[in-house]
Structures are given as C-alpha cells and as structure tokens.
Amino acid sequence: MGSAKKSSNQARQARIAEMRRAEEARDRRNRILTIAVSTVVVAGLVVGGVFLVRSQSDDSGDDTASDGKSTSGKFVAGADGVRTWKGTLSRNHVTKKVSYPVDPPVGGDHDQAWMNCNGDVYTEPLNNENAVHSLEHGAVWVTYTDQAPKADVEKLAAKVKKTPYSLMSPDDRQKDPIMLSAWGHQRTVTGADDPNVDKFFEKFVQGEQTPEPGAACTNGLSR
C-alpha cells in the first residue's frame, strides 16, 4: 500500500515537473517573440524617421530652388557679343515654378522633364523649367518675339529642324526680337542671316559648357 502511494506521488511530481518545464519553455518563446517584435517595430520607426527627415530636406531644397535663391551671379559680355553667366547656376530638379534672374533663362534649377530638343520647333511659349533642362543636356534654344520678321523666324526654324540638340519657341517676355541661349551663355542676333547664328550653334550645340553631355534630347515633353 505504501509502495503504491509512493509511486503515485512520484508520478504526480513528474507530471508537475513536466508542466513546469513546458511553462518555462513557453515563457522563453514568448520572451523571444516579444524581443523580435520590438526589434522590428524599432527598426520601422528608425527607417520611417529617416524617410521623414529626407523628405523634409528634399522639400526644403525645392522651396529654396523655387524662389531662385540657389542661382546667383550676372552676365558678363564678351568681345564676340556672347554674354556669359558668371556665378552659380544650380541644377536641382524641382516641382515648383522657378524665378529666374534673366529671360530666357540660361540655367538654374529646373523640372525633371526636359523639352524634346532634337530639332524641335514649338509655336507656343515653353515652360522655362522644362527648356532649361534641355540646355543642361547641351541644347541651343532659339527664342523670338512678335517683333521678329516672319522670314527670319521661318529660316531659323528650318535651321533648328535639321540640327539635333536644338529647339525653338516664341517668348514675348525677352528684351530683343531674336535671342540664342545655351547653358550659361546667351546672345542677341539681328536675324537669321546674322553670321553669329552659325557661330553660336557651332560652339554651343553639345559644347564644352554642357553639364550633361550626351544626355537625351528625345523622350521628353513635346508640349
């Protein structure tokens, strides 16, 4: 009888010990799971914080660029009649309107989309932000006002159409009837037959001033 009781107690103690081991194992699993979840949450917060800071930083850059503060300097006229920008021409991509110091602009912050400049002739004014991106790719931009003779406009359009890395559009805000612009450079010409037209094209179409030589003048905006 005593032996049976002793055996029963031992069996009960064994079951209790087994239950304790199972409970301890469960506690260990719960602690590991809690630590793992906490690690994932903390990592997510860190990544989210970094993304937020970067986003705010990017937005701040756009604000600075949109008011033109990141472009500074002035034109210096050369003996050949070409005005060269002396100063800073920033190159940030922005989504807002940019207040350029000259019109047409010769550089500065611009839209991420460029205007097609593979000999493209536009009959409507362009957004400066898109055209400046074309200048960054090494294009020459021909602009004219309603004071430019129609015959000159037609001759210049014909020249642009056969010249890769060039584009043309009207711009009634500029001070002279016909102007030629490249990144950091600009000049006025008297007409389509002015020899300075060819000189400007030869020097600045994909010229040494190009910030991104070889960049595309196609697959951009056509209007």
Automatic annotation (TrEMBL):
Keyword Transmembrane among UniProt keywords: yes
Chain intervals for the UniProt region annotation (Disordered): 1-23, 57-76
Swiss-Prot/TrEMBL keywords: Membrane, Transmembrane, Transmembrane helix
Regions of compositional bias (Polar residues) in chain numbering: 1-10
Membrane-spanning segments: 32-53
Pfam families: DUF3105
Alphabetical list of InterPro entries matching this protein: DUF3105 (IPR021454)
Name of protein: DUF3105 domain-containing protein
